[in-house]
Amino acid sequence: MRVGLITPRPDHPLLAATSALLTAAGHEVLVQDPFSEDAETEADVYLLKARTPHALALARALERRGARVVNSAGATALLQDRTTMAGLARSAGLPFAPTRTFASLADFAAGPPPAGPVVVKSRHSRKDDLVARVDTPRDLRELAARYPHEPVVVQEFVPNDGWDEKLWAVGRHVFSAHRRSELALDELDELDDFGTPPAPRDRTGLVHRVGEVFGLQVYGVDVIGTEDGTPLIVDINAFPGIRGQAGAPEALAALTLEPGTATLPTCRS
């Protein structure tokens, strides 16, 4: 099988490890420049790691020619707009954080001050986008002065246990980790005082439901660990890095080969 990687970074740890597994099993792995207007080589399946407009246009062109793309261009593009993401998630009954949209951060700052802390994010998800906690009117004015024209979404800050649940899916396999939340620093003693993370909770059903709603195969779900343990989704990402998760490369290699008949080492998840 020929596998195309749509990415400017084929050396990314997840992709590099997956490529090594596929190559060892006798498959050919090709790197496709995401800035190219057309595929340089024909592959049986493409992994869409890049999420830029050029990469999405290329993926759509490949799909029109009958190629299998993981994730699809449509699903990937949908998650680039946090307003659309939140609307679809909530309409499907997913526990997604209530989300308001503003044409610009200046527009939000010009309105009534928020009653409590809020989280402000760029409406359009991209590398190094805006994600910031705002506690006071002064914080909001200062942020708006730096990003006056940035379209944003606003979510109320929910008191939590100071940990973010990072959940990743590769097909039916789910991986997870806890990370200190930078947005909850006021509730923490020190950022480098890692403490003991909460006991892992089984979020498999929730993660799979996200995949069904959004038509995703490789994706990440960011969940706040609320004080009563109720999950609250605050973001969803297409084809995240999934660094340091044992079994993730095996799961991605196996997913890439579906519905092929080639075999790979058993995935650990």
From TrEMBL:
Q: Is Repressor one of the keywords UniProt gives this record? A: no
The GO terms describing molecular function are: ATP binding; metal ion binding; ribosomal S6-glutamic acid ligase activity
The yes or no answer to whether the keyword Ribonucleoprotein is present is no
Q: Which InterPro entries match?
A: ATP-grasp (IPR011761)
- A Gene Ontology cellular-component term: cytoplasm
The ATP-grasp domain covers: 86-266
Q: What is one process in the GO biological process aspect for this record? A: SOS response
Looking up SUPFAM superfamilies in the UniProt record yields: Glutathione synthetase ATP-binding domain-like (SSF56059)
PROSITE patterns of this UniProt entry? ATP_GRASP (PS50975)
The record's keywords, sorted A to Z, are: ATP-binding, Nucleotide-binding
The record's listing under PANTHER family reads: BETA-CITRYLGLUTAMATE SYNTHASE B-RELATED, RIBOSOMAL PROTEIN S6 MODIFICATION PROTEIN
**Name recorded for this polypeptide:** ATP-grasp domain-containing protein
